[in-house]
Specification:
- It is built from 4 helices and 3 strands; from the N terminus they run H-H-E-E-H-H-E.
- It is α+β, with helices and mostly antiparallel strands.
- It has a single domain, classed as GMP Synthetase, Chain A, domain 3, CATH 3.30.300.
- It has a 3-stranded mixed beta sheet.
- Helix 2 packs across helix 4.
Length: about 100
Amino acid sequence: MASNELKNLLNPNAGGDLGDIVNRARKMGDLTRALCDGLPEEFTGAIIAANLRENGDLVVIASSSAWASRLRFETDSLLAAARGAGLNATTCRIRVSQT
């Protein structure tokens, strides 16, 4: 595969499947940062990733079960942070990372 073909394959503006994956990963990273910024500093490291489903369900992946328990008390703040980022989040689910 030529170098230019590889660049186009990974280019999020090229419209290919991998470009869509790159765009989705960027959006998830932006959402995760927005949620982390919406929490007090003591929650640093609590959130591994976040995603917004089409039905408005905000899914937050916590780094441990202890963090998940604490984050469940912060669902209003998480929803507000997602809405502040321009997303239509209606509910929030906290999950624990499986790693």
